[in-house]
Amino acid sequence: MSGRDNFIRMSEQNKTGSRVAVITGAAQGIGRRTAELLAERGYRLGLLDLKPCSETIAAIPKAASIDFTGDVTDESFIKASAAAIEERWGAPDVVINNAGISFIKKSEETTVADYRHVLEVNLVAPFIIVRAFAPMMLAARRGSFVNVASIAGLFGVAERTAYNASKHGLVGMTRTLAAEWGGRGVRSNAVCPGWVKTPMDDVEQARGVYSDADITNRIPMGRFASPDDVAKAIAFLADPEQSGFVNGHTLVVDGGWTADASWESLRLSQRKK
Ligand SMILES: NC(=O)c1ccc[n+]([C@@H]2O[C@H](COP(=O)([O-])OP(=O)(O)OC[C@H]3O[C@@H](n4cnc5c(N)ncnc54)[C@H](O)[C@@H]3O)[C@@H](O)[C@H]2O)c1
Question: Which DSSP state fits 93?
């Protein structure tokens, strides 16, 4: 094992998969389900997270994977991870900027330090990752970025100034990269989930900031998104055979939330018909 391997744990039972995906925030939630789904579809996986992705890797024993434990805001960690992936597998086919943090607080109680921290994780880190992987992808003239934004990147939601600004920024970054690199064979798209049942939701609900009913009553389809709903949208945008001319798109995965301007009693009455 080289010195670099002190933060890399290798798991390479199978090197036959043809495509390579890099997923941040892959230890749990949406990132973990995305890793599982892409493994089922034959991708080799570079998994990055603050925590070891041991549970994710245990769920995909046949996939070739490399686990990088570190902070996505740390440029040297990202550069070293990108170099290790390029050395082993070459340019990735898809880089999925999924790691992110929630932050729910009244704007007048949000400090500038809070605001900077949320932007650092949710918006600056995706750019660090894009800067690390884009040179090899542009040189290969193929591949794509999929950025996990939110419907909070398209509309306002009270008490989330920092989070919503970060996700609006991520949508802006996605569209700009699509304009800049689409002509060089590298697509950029975003998925915009509504509320998803993940550990992030568990943490916020444990704080009492909203309930299941607050969310499900707002959604025409009457349920939360599952991590699998979002993973399938990511997999669609990742696959050039399915989405090869889709570039700069924000794919909403929200059960109709943002399409529906009905008042609550009207919305709920539709379920009884
Ligand atoms: N859960 C939702 O309702 C929801 C809705 C819309 C968008 N999203 C977005 O989807 C993405 C994934 O969310 P989730 O619900 O799976 O969250 P989660 O909290 O369950 O998982 C996030 C993962 O990211 C990792 N992570 C966080 N900060 C990191 C850092 N600095 N460096 C490396 N890894 C880091 C965490 O360790 C964790 O494993 C996030 O970007 C989130 O904003 C979530």
Answer: S
Predicted pLDDT of residue 194:
98
Instruction: Kindly state the tokens that stand for 103.
Output: 């932050």
Of the candidates 100, 60, 93, 103, the one whose C-alpha atom is nearest the C-alpha of residue 193 is 100
Determine the distance separating the centroid of ligand 1 and the alpha carbon of 33, expressed in angstroms: 12
Give the Cα separation of 195 and 155 in Å (integer): 14
Q: How far apart are CA 253 and CA 81, in angstroms?
A: 30
The structure tokens listed for 218 are 């707002």
Q: How many A from CA of 198 to the centre of ligand 1?
A: 9
**CA 228 – CA 237 distance, rounded (Å):** 14
**Catalytic: which of 43, 115, 163, 210?**
163
Quickly state the pLDDT bin for 3 (edges 50, 70, 90): very low
- CA separation, residue 209 to residues 198, 201, 225 (Å): 15, 10, 18
Going by their DSSP bridges, the two strands 64-69 and 43-49 should be labelled as parallel
Q: What is the pTM of this model?
A: 0.94
Q: At what angle do helices 161-181 and 125-140 cross, to 10 degrees?
A: 10
Cα–Cα distance for residue pair 45/42, rounded to 1 Å? 9
Sheet holding 8-12, edge to edge: 8-12, 64-69, 43-49, 19-24, 94-97, 144-148, 187-193, 250-253
User: Which residues, in sequence order, are bridge partners of residue 66?
Assistant: 10, 46
Residue 178, token pair as written in the block: 């699509």
The answer, yes or no, to whether residue 4 has pLDDT greater than 90, is no
- Does the domain spanning 3-196+225-260 belong to CATH 3.90.420.10? no
